[in-house]
Amino acid sequence: MSIYSLKMRASRHENGTQEHVSGAEKILRASELTAQMDALLQRALHHAKGKADFINLKIEEIQPDDLQYIDALPVSTYEATTADEGRKAMAEGLTEVGISPEKAEKIMSMFKDTYSMRGAMLLDADILERLEPDHARGIRATYMDAEHSASRSASDCKNHFQEAIVLASKVISAPHIIAELCMSDDPDYVTGYIATRSKGYMRITKLKPMGCPDGGRIFLYRGPREEVAECIRYLQQQHVLVRNVPEKPVLSSIPSYATSHPEENIKKGTLKENSPKNPWQVYADILAEKKNRHLYRTTTEISSAQAAHVTCNSQEQLMLASNDYLGLIDHPDVIAAAQNAAAIYGTGSGGSRLTTGTLPLHNQLERDLAHFKGTEAAIIFNTGYMANVGIISAMGIKDSIIFSDEKNHASIIDGCRLSHAKTVIYAHNDMADLEAKLQEYADCQGLIVTDAVFSMDGDIANLPRIMELAKTYHVLTMVDEAHSTGVLGRTGRGITEHFGLAEMPDILMGTMSKALAAEGGYACGSQLLIDYLRNTARSYIFSTSLAPAVLAAAKQALQLLTEQPEMAQALQQNTRIFCQELQTHGIEADSETAIVPIILHDEELALKAAAALRQKNIYISAIRYPTVAKNHAMLRAALMATHTEDELRHAAKTIAATIKELK
Question: Is 514 part of the annotated catalytic residue set?
Answer without folding.
Answer: yes
